[in-house]
Amino acid sequence: MPKILMYSTAVCPYCARAEQLLRAKGAGEIEKIRIDLDPARKDEMMQRTGRRTVPQIYIGDTHVGGFDDLAALDRAGKLDPLLAAS
User: Fold this and answer.
1) I need a surface site. Which of 35, 58, 67, 73 has the fewest CB within 10 A?
2) Would you tell me the crossing angle of helices 67-75 and 13-24 to the nearest 10 degrees?
3) What is the rounded distance in angstroms from the CA atom of residue 76 to the CA atom of residue 86?
């Protein structure tokens, strides 16, 4: 399974929902970067993704986007193959 990285904050319900969906799909470790604790990482997130909101999720080298993007990928049947890639 590819590495999963998620930019998040402590009080983000969409971050929790994204993590629940990924765990339900069998995801192992999810590296979380808390941008509320480290403002420099927020700048990094905005430069990497062009977005200001959390969560911002990477599966391997693929920027998935936020929770809505992740859920849409799942509905389209494209999340499982992305998680299965190594």
Assistant:
1) 58
2) 30
3) 20
- 85 pLDDT exceeds 90? no
Q: How far is CA 73 from CA 25, 41, 81, 84, in A?
A: 12, 26, 10, 14
Domain ranges of the chain: 4-84
List, for residues 8-62, the tens digit of each pLDDT value.
999 999 999 999 999 999 998 999 999 999 999 999 999 999 999 999 999 999 9
By the 8 A CB rule, do 57 and 31 touch? no
Q: Give the pLDDT band (50/70/90) at residue 86.
A: low
Q: How many residues are recorded in the chain?
A: 86
Interatomic CA distance for residues 69 and 4, integer angstroms: 15
